[in-house]
Amino acid sequence: MKSLLSISSHVVHGYVGNRAITFPLQYMGWDVDAINTTNYSNHPGYGSLQGRALTPDAVKDILQGLHHVLDLNSYDLILTGYTPNADVLSVVKAEVVQVLQKQEGKIPHWIVDPVLGDNGKLYVSEKVIPVYKEILSTELVSLITPNQFEFETLSEAKITDWRACEVAIKAFAKKYNIGNIVISSVEIDNQLHCVGYTDGEIFSKPIRKIDCDFNGCGDLFTGLMANSYYENGYKITPKSISSVLSTLHNILQFSYDFELQISGQAPKVVKDIKVVAAKKYL
To answer: pTM of the full predicted structure?
Structure first.
């Protein structure tokens, strides 16, 4: 049985964070354990929300409770996504590093989705940025899945063309000794691309753009990428990226068409991607 520990946000209504990650992976045969770093009524795309983020102590208690009932090294993958602040992320870092520094037996692969923001704008406190750099500096991260803004923030390099993209990715990989990088979307020459890196090789695939914003798209992408990464022997390949992009596009198009049918007009934002209704594409 494939098993994964996902540490990310939770909303009661909508599909972001663990809500966008858990069902698709379960449907694809994964045993998913989820630690929710938030417990919100809904995601911020609705304009308001209620609930609260977990405290660092609460996250630590949950992780230590897990230690008492199972060996965290039994997981195939540990995925870390949205964390509400630097203190919580520091706790996650400390606990995961402890697991991955085990000297013998099975060692899970660590996938980091560094949720910082998008479109030039931070969603979280700036204090989170150095903690992500500390995580990368452990050299224990197997795969990172930032968007362009997040990659540029962490690498401190701007992607303006293909040459700049290649230089930045190779420098980033060398600095943090990371074997697999996927930038979920990079805009070059007015075209979106998904860019992958595995052990010195860089490749890209064009993204079929839908003229609409989708809440939770990045979380779903990371979940799909996690499955593909595992199935390909812990490697990223052009074929695996194409497959993930195709699946993601089909789910987003289904969600777009659903909103169009309900409202009778083309949506500019899809607040809730139809992860369950579109399960035939998984």
So the answer is: 0.97
